[in-house]
């Protein structure tokens, strides 16, 4: 255990230990009772739980996805922790890495949620106050508060993960009612090398759950939630196989039944599990983090440098192999819904990276640090003071009142909340004006053309945090790799805008990216 006491003030909920520990399989063949009619259940709306890749693709034509997620509060310390692993990396198409942040709101600095989202990452729901088997107000209050105070479009909050991975059938039904696209709380806990593996590709619940089948009311066809996806969380396994699963924050576990953490042992089993997936059916693997456990500069946290280096070494090693992509859940799900072979990955819009063109000198509170500088409101609540573009609420948001009345600072007007027909980066909450219309709202496409698609498509090992290092990914078409943007907290001058783009397209907005 790491010494947490000094900062319990800020983060009591984040640090109650490793939420999401597993001690063994969560499914058995008898409890499963799963059957799915593949003639009726077809993509993109329906997908049967299967260990084989979607769309009938052969594993050699399938990208190996590594999903990167973080849970709990978003604040400078947790984003710094994530950036240690991602800021200096790129995917094989030259785009910065995007990840999924399951956000809970206690101790969250709302403006940093805006920034992280505008930089192209996925923001998802983790309840307001971090409770297991949450009531509806905890789930829906998170949507309302993130929309009101962080300017996250409701349409782009697609996913949910239960705190402590503690959910019930009722939770899944609540998510379905609130029109979430997916849950990602269930575990795959049997290795892919075992004939009874439960490492299914993401699937819809048209025929019920196929993971966590030892939980009451799940599996054997229940619950039936048509079109609602489960993205299982894929465990790593040490030498004990199904008796040695490691799910969240695997680096906090001792491996192989030992009593002490050993980074080298962790690296070895992460690599061997990766190899089993990569040389098999290429089910995704996941790095599911609680970033506070990896914070390098949080007062009182003493994350061993060796652990941070080990995780980077793992990602370097993985990225040197062909067709390995580090992605958010929404990127993974987009590919699963529209599976194409690696030779056509340049068609997958969610893997591209687009930069909104906002004049660097514009003074507009829009989630881009250079634009919003000096425009944030400081909401001085005693639990955790936070900043926002959208005006301070008169009281702290709570499940009972997730969007309290706004309190205008003296001499200033009320801030305007994001309307559903404007994108966060183009919304001016002070003037109440969308600076984006079909003529003025444009994007740079920073995606590198994928030349001979599929040929030696690697992200390259760019894992040292040495920002002077040049990228080593393999270029296509003999193109010279563009130099990396200097790594830092905000490498996001190259902004990925894909999630927003998809959301905006659904709203029927028009412009030319
Ligand atoms: C909160 O956000 C503000 C504005 O970006 C930043 O200056 C401050 O350091 C952040 N604090 C934390 C703890 O995240
Ligand atoms: C799950 O959450 C509920 C409600 O917070 C709690 O009563 C229960 O003990 C939790 N179960 C586990 C296994 O943590
Ligand atoms: C792919 O990589 C292999 C081994 O590194 C190399 O021999 C081959 O020439 C590469 N092919 C292309 C198209 O770059
Ligand atoms: C970073 O890279 C530069 C150039 O390769 C090298 O001179 C320097 O020693 C490296 N620094 C660290 C801390 O590795």
From TrEMBL:
The keyword Transmembrane helix belongs to this UniProt entry's keyword annotation: yes
Bilayer-spanning residue ranges: 489-509
Keywords recorded for this protein, A-Z: Membrane, Signal, Transmembrane, Transmembrane helix
InterPro entries from the UniProt entry: CE4, Glyco_hydro/deAcase_b/a-brl
A single GO BP: carbohydrate metabolic process
Domain of life: Eukaryota
Name the UniProt record assigns to this protein: NodB homology domain-containing protein
Keyword Transmembrane: yes
Species name: Panaeolus cyanescens
PANTHER family noted in UniProt: CHITIN DEACETYLASE-LIKE 4, PTHR45985
Signal sequence extent: 1-17
């Amino acid at each position: 255990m790491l010494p947490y006491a000094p900062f319990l003030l800020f983060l009591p909920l984040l640090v109650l230990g490793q939420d999401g520990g597993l001690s063994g399989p969560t499914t058995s063949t008898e409890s499963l009772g799963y059957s799915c009619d593949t003639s009726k259940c077809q993509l993109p709306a329906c997908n049967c739980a299967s260990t084989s890749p979607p769309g009938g693709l052969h594993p050699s034509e399938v990208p190996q996805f590594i999903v990167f997620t973080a849970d709990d509060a978003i604040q400078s310390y947790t984003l710094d922790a994530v950036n240690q692993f991602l800021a200096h990396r790129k995917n094989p198409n030259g785009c910065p890495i995007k990840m999924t942040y399951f956000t809970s709101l206690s101790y969250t600095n709302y403006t940093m949620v805006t920034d992280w989202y505008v930089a192209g990452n996925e923001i998802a729901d983790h309840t307001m106050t971090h409770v297991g088997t949450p009531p509806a107000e905890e789930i829906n209050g998170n949507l309302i508060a993130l929309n009101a105070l962080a300017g996250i479009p409701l349409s782009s909050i697609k996913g949910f993960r239960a705190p402590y991975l503690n959910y019930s059938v009722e939770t899944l039904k609540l998510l379905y009612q609130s029109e979430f696209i997916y849950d990602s709380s269930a575990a795959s806990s049997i290795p892919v090398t075992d004939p009874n593996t439960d490492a299914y590709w993401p699937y819809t619940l048209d025929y019920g759950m196929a993971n966590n089948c030892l939980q009451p009311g799940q599996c054997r066809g229940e619950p039936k939630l048509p079109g609602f996806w489960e993205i299982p969380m894929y465990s790593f396994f040490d030498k004990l196989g199904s008796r040695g699963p490691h799910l969240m924050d695997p680096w906090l576990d001792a491996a192989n039944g030992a009593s002490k953490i050993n980074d080298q042992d962790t690296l070895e089993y992460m690599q061997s599990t990766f190899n089993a997936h990569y040389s098999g059916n290429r089910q995704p693997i996941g790095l599911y983090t609680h970033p506070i456990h990896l914070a390098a500069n949080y007062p009182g946290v003493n994350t061993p440098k060796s652990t941070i280096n080990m995780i980077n070494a793992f990602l370097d090693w993985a990225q040197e192999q062909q067709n390995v992509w580090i992605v958010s859940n929404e990127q993974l799900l987009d590919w699963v819904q529209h599976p194409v072979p690696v030779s056509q990955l340049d068609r997958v819009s969610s893997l591209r990276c687009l930069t909104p063109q906002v004049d660097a000198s514009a003074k507009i509170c829009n989630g881009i640090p250079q634009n919003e500088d000096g425009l944030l409101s400081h909401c001085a609540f005693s639990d955790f003071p936070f900043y926002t573009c959208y005006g301070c609420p008169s009281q702290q948001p709570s499940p009972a009142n997730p969007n309290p009345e706004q309190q205008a600072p003296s001499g200033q007007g009320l801030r305007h909340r994001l309307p559903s027909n404007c994108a966060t980066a183009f919304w001016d909450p002070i003037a109440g004006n969308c600076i984006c219309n079909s003529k003025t709202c444009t994007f740079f496409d920073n995606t590198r053309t994928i030349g001979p698609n599929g040929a030696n498509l690697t992200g390259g090992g760019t894992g040292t945090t040495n920002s002077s290092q040049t990228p080593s990914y393999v270029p296509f078409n003999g193109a010279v790799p563009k130099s990396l943007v200097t790594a830092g907290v905000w490498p996001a001058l190259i902004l990925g805008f894909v999630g927003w783009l998809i959301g905006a397209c659904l709203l029927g907005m028009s412009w030319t990216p």
